[in-house]
Structures are given as structure tokens and as C-alpha cells.
Amino acid sequence: MADTAKVTRQQQPGRPATDPGPDPGPVVGPGPDSADRPRPSDRRSAVRSLLRLWPFVRPVRARLFTAAFVAVLASCIGLVIPLVLKWLVDGPIADRDPGGAWLGGGYLLLLGLAEAGLFGLRRWLVARPLAHVEATMRDSLYRHVQRLPVAFHDRWASGQLLSRGTTDLQLLRLFLAFPLTFLIVNATTILVGCVILLVQRWSLGLVLLAPIVPLIVLCSVFEAKYAVAARRAQDQVGDVTTVVEESVLGIRIVKGFGRHRSQARAFRELTARLRATELRKARLLAALWACIMALPELALGAALVLGTVQVADGDLSAGTLVAFLSTALALMWPVESIGFLLAMSNDAAAATDRYFEVLDEPVADRDDARKAAEQTPVTGPGTTRSGTTAPGTISSGTTDPGTTGLAFHGVTFRYPDAPTDAPPVLRGIDLHIRPGETMALVGATGSGKTTLTALVPRLHDATGGRITLDGTDITALPRAELRARVAVAFEEPTLFSATVAENVLMGGEGAGSDDLRRALRVAQADGFVDALPDGPDTEVGEQGLSLSGGQRQRLALARAVVGRPRFLVLDDPLSALDVHTEALVEAALRQVLATTTALVVAHRPSTVLLADRVALLSGGRIAAVGSHHQLLRENAEYAALMSGTADGAGTARHEGESVR
Ligand SMILES: Nc1ncnc2c1ncn2[C@@H]1O[C@H](COP(=O)(O)OP(=O)(O)OP(=O)(O)O)[C@@H](O)[C@H]1O
User: Fold this and answer.
1) Ligand 1 centre distance from Cα of residue 395 (Å)
2) Of 46, 51, 80, 342, whose CA is between 20 and 30 Å from 324?
3) How many angstroms does the Cα of residue 394 sit away from the middle of ligand 1?
4) Alpha-carbon distances, residue 326 vs 88, 300, 333, 451 (angstroms)
5) Is the pTM of this model over 0.95?
């Protein structure tokens, strides 16, 4: 497996590698600035970001608009209450009319009840559709992440993806439930309220409206600063999630190497950074809130003094002043709440950006099979794309009936994140595995064996040349069909939180219990599986951690063979087996390999002996192809690799296993 790749990833900027020194850094986790994290190149305005939510909101727009209308209605009812008060003070109270006062009280009660009822109705209207929007968005994100190429997952920290699918989506649901509605409701309420104030007494109204301009300037300054802090905080939540997730998954390494202190330190540093950002957000919000509270209060005080003087001079009725002040007080909350509504909207805009950064990542083109078929003319066997004859029998079309089995034609590959001056990992690979043949792939550590095998099921796409299955270019095959034809088992056997049977059966579409039995038998897994508490129905837990390494490897092998694939790609699948079990698995594998076309990465001679022929990968090229014994005789590098004496051969653990 690509151990070296993992080291490369950990050594990227901001991702400290395991440090064997006296003060080791964290075993895992993003570093100070998480510089390896993809970031948006430019910050779009909050409104433009939030508008991207429309496709998800569209299906529930009727309910959302109705809810907003109901909220506006409720808020406007709140503005009618001061008018009833004016009538009550200037009418029944001034006339000392108890009947009128009771009537006025009744009106006020009814209006209050209507306001409360309408706000309740709004909550009821939005609850279900917003849960639906959140679920749909989460579903889209999950499906998209599943379809993104392996190169994407190599680049992105898992915690960043987790936080986008959880906390960011919760922020978005909150935004749709409150700020979106209340920004509309409050703006309408403030507008209607201002008209009422100006109509009641325009001079007092103007005094109250004076703080509007400074408030607008303040809000725009705040918005710009808060947006940056909001984005930083959400990214930092992603970093914290990554550290927690990796620490839990790597708990054996953390404990085994006594790294819990350094791991805890890394966690503390990240949480301290997050805390600092949250405090900055709080300070910004507090400053804005102080201004938003103080300025209108000052204006209200001035209007009160001016109004009292006018009542004393007999220019204004007491009822009008009461109504005016009640209206102004009713507008206080809509004005004051603008601060946190803006803050929540900015949090939501940052969450939207983060969400779409993942969703905008191009998936491996689903239609590339069709496009390749349309664009590439099918030429006869033995011609290249330019029409010239290639070495061997290589066709450039999407189908090449002349080449059956699995064939690599001038395949080149370079990792997308590799330094530009680094040579490609694979260069001009020409290899033909005939139908029914088993080819062992041997090479030093880091020579590109895993990379080459990953190209067949298209976990990565070759950057040059072509790979054909029975003459058909793999890029011309729909991915589902390709993966049905090719089964893989990697050195790192990943099992899911599911039963043994489910884990194995996911290797073959439509495979049943007979196939399961056969596959378990082939992988020599039937014995230990039957001994599990519920047999094949035993839950094997997260990553199958309740099983031994060898048991997991055998289940991964069973998964590879359960669908009776025509092509089998095995990346050193026997590495964790003891010698006795390995011999049993090999014996069973021989039967499977006899009927499939297989490419098997092999480190030890016993695995090589399963193969009909061996290909030696060296310097990114196929250096030699032949039988095991032929290569042992004729190729010094191969002989050194097999005897475990080669530099970095990666076979040290199997020293002494030489077969001659
Ligand atoms: N995701 C990646 N990004 C960049 N480089 C990578 C990546 N994965 C692997 N590499 C590099 O590609 C080269 C080949 O790696 P690969 O895992 O294919 O070697 P290998 O022959 O399978 O090694 P081993 O025998 O140790 O499993 C190495 O130099 C490795 O560092």
C-alpha cells in the first residue's frame, strides 16, 4: 500500500508529520493554519452566497413565503396595538368612560392573542419543510462525496467534510428558520412603523429616524469584518473535528507510541484558536449591538423630551404621544435584532460557501465513458491515436478486439498533487495479461505497484495511454460495469460497521448466500466466521476492529471474489496472514485465479508462485516480464528483491523466504 503517500500527505504544510524527537508533534491533525485545506479564492458577498441555496429551497418556497407573510402580518398587528392605545387614552380614558375602556382592553387582548397565534403558526409552517431542506442538502453532499475521485479524498481532511455535513447544515437550517424570515419581517415592520411615526408627528418621526444613516454604515463595516471571522471559525471547527476523528481512529497508535499528551496539546491549541475566533465574533457583535441599542435609545430620549414639551405647549395630544412612543418602542426589537440577524446570516453565508466548495468539486465525469466512445474514433488493431503503429498490438480506439485480457498501453501516471518537477510515478507502461492468466507485479517499495493497480478500477485515471479490458478502453465503460468486471482487494482491508455477510456481499451485485459461502471458503474465512457469535450475521464493528488483521484480510479477499469477477486486482492481499493460513488461502486462491484474469502485487516469493508470469516494475517502467525462475536467473534486481537483499525492497519482513 501507499505508505509513502501517507507520509507525503502528513508532511504537507500545516500537517505536521510524526516527529520522533524529544518533543514530538501530534501524530495526526491539521497544523497551525491548515494550509493544505482548500480555500475559496475570493470571498463573494453574503447575499450571492446565500442565493445559491435557492435550488434546495425552491421545493418548499410556498410554505416559506406563507410563513414569512404570516410573520409580517403578526408583526404589523403589533404595530396596531399603539394605535388602539392612542384611541383608548384620547377617548374612553380622557372621557372617563369605563365601558369604552373595557372595550379597548378587549381589543388589545384580541390583538395580542392574534399576534401570538400567528407567530406560532409561522413556526409550525416552517418546521417540516426546513427539516426536509436540511436532509436533502445532507443527502446531496453525501452522494457527491461518495462520487468524488480518490484524489479529492487524498487532499481533504475528513473532519472538514464531516463539519460541512453537520454543523454547517445546522447553521443553514437555522438561517432559513429565523434570520431569513425575520430580516424580511423586521424590514417591513420598520418601514410600516416609520410611516406610522411620520404620519403621527413628522417632526418627532424625523428625530427618531436620524440614527438610520450611521446604523447602515456601522452594519456594513460589521458585516465585512464578521464574515471573515465567521468563515475562520467554521474552518477551525472542521480542524477540531479532524483531530478528534483521527485521534479516535488512530487510538492504537496514539496509545502505542504514548502520544496522548502531544495529541491533547494539539487539540488544546486548536480549540484555543477556535475560542479566540469565537471571542472575536462575540466582541464584534457586542460592539454592533451596543451601537444599535444606544443610537435609537438616544433618539427616543430626544423625541420623548421634544414630545413632552409639545404636549405641555398644547401642540400635541397626550394620546398621540403615548401612541408615538409605543410605536417607537414596538420598533426597538426589530431594530436591535438586526445585529444578530446579520451575524447569523454571515455564519450561514460562510456555511453555504463551505458546503458548495465540496459540491462544486467535479466528480470523475460520469459521462466520460460515453464521451470517450463518441470522441475517439474506433481504429483498427495496431494503430495509435495519431494513426501510427504502436509497439506491440495496441489499438487506439475505445475497443480493440485484438487485445483480450487486461492490457496497459503506454500508460503514464502522475499524482495531481505531486511537485511539478517530479517525474511521473508510472511512465510508458506496456503490459498485457492474457485472459485467464495471473500476473504478479513485483517492485521495490514506492516503485508504483499500488498506483498501477489503482488505475484498473479507475480509482485514479491514467494521465496518459490507455488500459483495456478484453479490448475495451476502461474509460469507455460505465463505472458500474467496470467495477462489476474488476474486483479489488487491498493490503489495507477496510471493513464497514455491518455484519460479516454484508461486508462480503457488497463485493458482488446480486450475490446470494451460496456465493457468500463459496467466497468465505475460498478466502479460508468460513472457519472463523462460523465460530463468531452470530456466524456471518455478526456485526464486525467500526472498521472491523473486533477482528484480527489476518481475519480482516481474508474477509476483504472474500469480498473481492464473491461476485465471480472476470478481472481480479489484488494488492498484496496475503501480507497479514500467518504462514499456515497463507498456504491455505493460496491453495484456494489458485482455483479462483485459474478462472480469472488477475494482477497480483506480490512481495514474497510464495505469492509470486501463484502467478503464471511476473512483471518487474522499476523506475516507473516495466523493466522485465517473464516467469519467476526465468527472472531469478536473468534479472539481478528481481533476484535481489526476492531474496530480500535489495535496497528498500520492502521485503525485509519476509527475509529468508527466498524460493529458487
Ligand atoms: N496520493 C498520492 N499523492 C502523491 N504521491 C503519491 C500518492 N500516493 C502514492 N504516491 C507516491 O507514488 C509513489 C508510488 O507509490 P505506491 O504506493 O504506488 O508504491 P508501491 O510500489 O505500492 O509501494 P509499497 O510496496 O511500499 O506498497 C511513491 O513515491 C509515493 O510516495
Assistant:
1) 29
2) 342
3) 27
4) 13, 11, 12, 73
5) no
